[in-house]
């Protein structure tokens, strides 16, 4: 038996980039890959053995601080020593080479493993869990569960003989004409049904046939929230009214709504947030109409928002019916309420139904999160990240305005003196302006917020899942390229947004590095 | 660093069952699991650490010879030592704890790993490969690839601005009204789109909305094939004519056929085989109409049919456009022809796009298959399995008929003497009758084949993927229960079929054990 490889165990002291990105090695590897596999979306190749903690090392040896973490899917960054230890657990070994068809032949330790890995973090009101392989299969099976429940309720029991015969011809009543409401800007995966609920970007959807299911509007808030209370409240109300309207319209069209699916943060679509009031409204409407309320926490679940589930921050009067997960939680799946339990065998089923190796790793991850107080750390670093980004935003707005504009506006608001001081300090930038902005009166901030010609805007976040917008797609893309060439690897989303999806081990030290690079990169735009 | 667990390395000498199935431990574990996870389809719990080779050990310590192998998904059975060694490979370790989003940030060893694990077994004409996570995601992305190609051909280029705008409203031309032909009895997975191409059992489909795509007929042959050449040929022709008819009908209905998807053996649907002539006909029709020909080898790929791909036995005049795989090949994915390469980034994409740990295990598996000549072994043991099953079939038919019937029929066919001898030997059964049947004239066999009251019929197979039918569902289910209580774990499929899906390490010694238990179990029906 060979001894196990162990990574260095020490994070790099900071980023270090010495080639263009992608570098020559990445380019060569891409050329080698091209004859056997598509490469069009490859950014660069990664040396996963040398990457560690929050730092990614690419094939050219460049070292980046990674706050995107494989599209938000690495809970502890790279090569976490506690996870590596799990690989020598006999349970992991046998699961890795003797993978069960666990719907029929589960491992004898399946229940306690689920219990420690998943039930331990079950969202309130959803004691049952079903593991799957990825976010898309989680969502597919969540809506299937909803359809089965909806039809069972309607009939008052299991499928009739007529249902069983007609479904084989794909005719009603066995194949029902029912639907799911999803939202403009949503992303729920890329299978055909998931794409029918996805409305983020044309590149996801074009040329693919779709179910013609209704699409509701998701709020688009103005920031900062506290300055736009009325506008944002109207957004919520308008969007909720549209949902009610769609439910009625679908009833008339004889294609009733069985479920509604929504993300806490529309991530792929551009990091759009909804308010607790909006989500409470959705919960109320779905309850009123007997519609299954599905919260897609594939991206937001797992701790990055400062709690295991983003929807915990909504303080709902009654919990969601289904909560989907994947990414940071390593496997896919969904938690669901007892009333949705499917009574007949083989209806929610497939060969693998998940992956025990991931479950065994996740069990350890949950233990480490608790042991190391990582949620507390995420909340703390998240606050720092949001306030740091707001300071850069304000600084950037200030830098973007002409001196004349600023002075006139500031004179009107009677904060001219401070502005003059800042103007004098413009040259050296962020640190000094950060301190000074801390003292600025809110009225003065407001001037900057209203600036139209600033490049960075709409800083927002929940825990460490923060984002901001840039003025257009080209500027956003240029910013991401500049940041990565400065050693910070971030993610884009929607048309103009930049998002943070750091691992749970992202600390205030990493935050400092990140903010400095962002500040520097903004100035180069 | 802890030392790694190693299993015994020795297969049990034979099956050993000492409790009812499921046993008391399985029942207790099921009760523990029920409050947190559905358990309706659980057969029994498995001790995967104690299982080894072709033998599965359940939670109660019962030992079964396993010819179902986790729904045909374990290539080397349980805890293969060569696969266990892979787990200490640094590539495996880093991949297991630092999972890449490999569409954008692949491992620096991705190309050589794919090359050794997959390109090494690429079907002729399909040099490109795309890894996914399971069979369903393979099929979903295969049809997406087909849709993208079909629309690109039709337009003569990438999507237009109109396409990109209209697809966001799910309206044509961006969201096209095009379809896939699938077959009656097919199984292609359980996502909504895959279910729309699945027509095996009502329990898969009922209550789930579907795409209204056309369904063709798959041949239903009479066995033995050599005695039913004309009937089976007509089956092929009728089914092919129906496909042509559907293509024309869809054109008129303004919902053109972009792809046709078919399994070499309709496994879930009841182990229905198609002839090389039938598949050649499908290839010709799809070529003629510019339709993408997708062969779903999720169950048949990986060596169990005696070659890496079941479609190799068809001797097609031109290869399939796409070949999907999963199960024994550990991950999901599809091979495809160069002309189907999608030129734009992010169209065939998702977070994980496969799983490098599986690819690293698969690399070793391909090496072992070649080193140990396992395909040769499968072909050899497959022949033995088919002939052994035919002998049991004939013996069973004989036992099922009344003496009078048999004697009269045999008299007419002038083989009365041999029949008398066999009649005398009826009591002790299989071994003696096997020897004697070896000498029987084909005319005499024919009598037995035509018997209506025999329970076992239609023995068929390709490599070790064999099957037979029993007279009805209740008898089939009783047979499976009897076999498992005798120590043989087999799979059911369709309404009345029993299928073999042994691992590639299934040898003639295991075959002897299996046939004896089948023979014994048949007699108890």
Describe the 3D structure:
The structure is a homodimer of 525-residue chains. Chain A is α/β, with parallel strands linked by helices. Helices cover 42% and strands 12% of the residues of chain A. Chain A contains 19 helices and 16 strands. In chain A, the strands form four sheets. Chain A has a seven-stranded mixed beta sheet, sandwiched between helices. A four-stranded antiparallel beta sheet of chain A has the order 12-13-16-15. The first copy, chain A, has a three-stranded mixed beta sheet with strand order 1-2-14. The interface between A and B is large, with 134 and 134 residues.
Question: What's a quick, concise take on this entry?
Answer:
The structure is a homodimer of 525-residue chains. The first copy, chain A, is an alpha/beta fold.
CATH architecture of the largest domain in chain A: 3-Layer(aba) Sandwich
Q: Structurally, how many domains make up the residues of chain A?
A: 3
User: Class of the largest domain in chain A, according to the CATH hierarchy?
Assistant: Alpha Beta
Share of helical residues of chain A: 40-55%
Discrete helix count of chain A: 19
Question: What oligomeric state is this?
Answer: homodimer
Strand content of chain A: 5-15%
Terminal CA distance of chain A = 54 Å
Structural class of chain A: alpha/beta
The Rg value of chain A, from CA coordinates, equals 25 Å
Q: Identify the CATH homologous superfamily of the largest domain in chain A.
A: Type I PLP-dependent aspartate aminotransferase-like (Major domain)
Main beta sheet of chain A: 7 strands, mixed
Order of strands, main sheet of chain A, comes to 3-11-10-9-6-4-5
pLDDT < 50 runs, ≥5 residues of chain A: 427-435, 448-452
Shape of chain A: globular
Query: What is the fold-level CATH name, i.e. the topology of the largest domain in chain A?
Result: Aspartate Aminotransferase, domain 2
Counting DSSP E segments of at least 2 residues, the number of strands of chain A comes to 16
The residue-averaged pLDDT of chain A reads: 92
The greatest interface here is: A-B, 134 and 134 residues
């Amino acid at each position: 038996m060979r001894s196990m490889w162990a990574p260095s165990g020490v994070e790099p002291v900071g980023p270090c980039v010495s080639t263009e990105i992608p570098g020559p090695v990445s380019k060569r590897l891409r050329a080698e890959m091209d004859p056997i596999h598509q490469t069009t979306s490859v950014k660069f190749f990664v040396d996963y053995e040398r990457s560690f903690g929050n730092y990614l090392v690419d094939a050219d040896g460049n070292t980046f601080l990674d706050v995107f973490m494989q599209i938000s899917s690495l809970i502890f960054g790279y090569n976490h020593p506690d996870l590596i230890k799990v690989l020598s657990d006999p349970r992991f070994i046998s699961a890795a080479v003797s993978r069960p068809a666990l719907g029929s032949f589960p491992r004898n330790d399946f229940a306690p493993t689920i219990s420690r890995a998943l039930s331990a973090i079950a969202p309130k009101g959803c004691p049952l869990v079903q593991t799957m392989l990825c976010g898309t299969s989680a969502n597919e099976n969540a809506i299937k569960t909803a359809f089965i429940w909806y039809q069972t309720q309607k009939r008052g029991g299991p499928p009739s003989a007529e249902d069983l015969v007609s479904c084989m011809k794909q005719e009603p009543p066995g194949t029902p004409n029912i639907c799911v409401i999803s939202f403009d800007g949503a992303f729920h995966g890329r299978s055909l049904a998931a794409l029918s609920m996805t409305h983020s970007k044309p590149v996801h959807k074009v040329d693919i046939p779709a179910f013609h299911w209704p699409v509701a509007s998701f709020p688009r808030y103005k920031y900062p929230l506290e300055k736009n209370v009325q506008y944002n409240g109207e957004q919520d109300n308008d969007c909720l009214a549209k949902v009610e309207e769609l439910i009625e319209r679908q009833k008339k069209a004889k294609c009733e709504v069985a479920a509604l699916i929504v993300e806490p943060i529309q991530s792929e679509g551009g990091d759009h947030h909804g308010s607790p009031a909006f989500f409470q409204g959705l919960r109320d409407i779905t309850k009123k109409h007997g519609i299954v309320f599905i919260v897609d926490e594939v991206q937001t679940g797992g701790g990055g928002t400062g709690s295991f589930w983003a929807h915990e921050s909504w303080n709902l009067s009654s919990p969601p019916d289904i909560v989907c997960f994947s990414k940071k939680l390593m496997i896919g799946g969904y938690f669901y309420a007892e009333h949705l339990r499917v009574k007949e065998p083989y209806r929610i089923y497939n060969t693998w139904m998940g992956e025990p190796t991931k479950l065994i790793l996740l069990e350890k991850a949950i233990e480490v999160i608790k042991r190391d107080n990582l949620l507390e750390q995420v909340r703390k670093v998240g606050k720092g990240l949001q306030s740091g980004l707001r300071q850069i935003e304000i600084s950037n707005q200030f830098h973007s305005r002409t001196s004349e504009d600023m002075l006139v506006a500031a004179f009107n608001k009677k904060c001219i003196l401070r502005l003059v001081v800042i103007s004098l300090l413009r040259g050296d930038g962020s640190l000094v302006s950060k301190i000074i902005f801390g003292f600025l009166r809110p009225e003065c901030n407001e001037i900057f917020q209203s600036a139209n010609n600033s490049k960075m805007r709409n800083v927002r976040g929940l825990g460490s899942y923060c984002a901001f917008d840039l003025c257009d797609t080209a500027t956003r893309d240029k910013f991401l390229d500049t940041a990565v060439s400065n050693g910070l690897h971030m993610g884009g989303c929607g048309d103009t947004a930049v998002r943070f999806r750091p691992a749970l081990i992202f600390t205030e030290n990493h935050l400092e590095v990140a903010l400095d690079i962002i500040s520097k990169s903004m100035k180069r735009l």
